[in-house]
Design goal:
This protein is an alpha+beta fold and 257 residues long. 27% of the residues lie in helices and 32% in strands. It has a 9-stranded antiparallel sheet. Helix 1 packs antiparallel against helix 2 and helix 3 crosses helix 4.
Amino acid sequence: LILFKVWEAFVRKDVRKATIGIAFADRIFRSSSVAGSLIDELLKLRGKELPAEYFSTVARDPYDNSITIYGQAEGAYFNVSQDSIAYTYDLYESKKILNYATFVKEFESIWKTTHSVLQLPAIRRIGFVTEQRVYAGKMSNNMLLERFTGFKPSGFPARVSLSFDERFNTGHGGLPDPTKDDFVNVIRTYYDSALDVQHPESDAINGNLDVQRYYSPAFVGQPVQEIAALKERYDKIVTEFNIDLEALSQKHEKAAA
């Protein structure tokens, strides 16, 4: 797609994880009854719109009726629950470099197949999030607090996690109401990598940048164009975000020199 050609030039080797997530305005109660048909149709994408080695494993959670179809070695995960879907690249164990154009093209094929089976409802939220990791040494938690807060602990801080949202109106108005308004939400999260549930690591810091669009009224249609608009906003923010991450890493390098 011409729309995503510009994405190919923006590839960061240090992006370890990326997710496109969609939350719906209404629940998909039929997802459990047609789960088998959905899995069959998604598996048919292998060797065509998706690499042949994708989606070697299927998992179902009986508690929330969610389905996860994935290939751990390739790091591609697709999850369907009663109120959302999410497509994730997890590159921690892979030598692959995230290519946004390929990532979104794969998501588009998955979306069309899932929609053909489930007749997905209108969309309340679309989100695009990436995760990076930098190495900051034994004092990584101190560096996090020093960089973003005025707090100076007397001991040795651990398991520090900092997160904040920044909301932008898409039209006129004051503070957006997150329960009903149309707005863009940007979430910046920085935390001790030891807290990472799937890939914990000491002496490092994770940085997650999540750009979301909330729709009111709910959006009906193909989400790929909307994801492209989100990516444009992400590109404007990520440079500043990376400056903070790289400053933490560079401070560690200077201390070690």
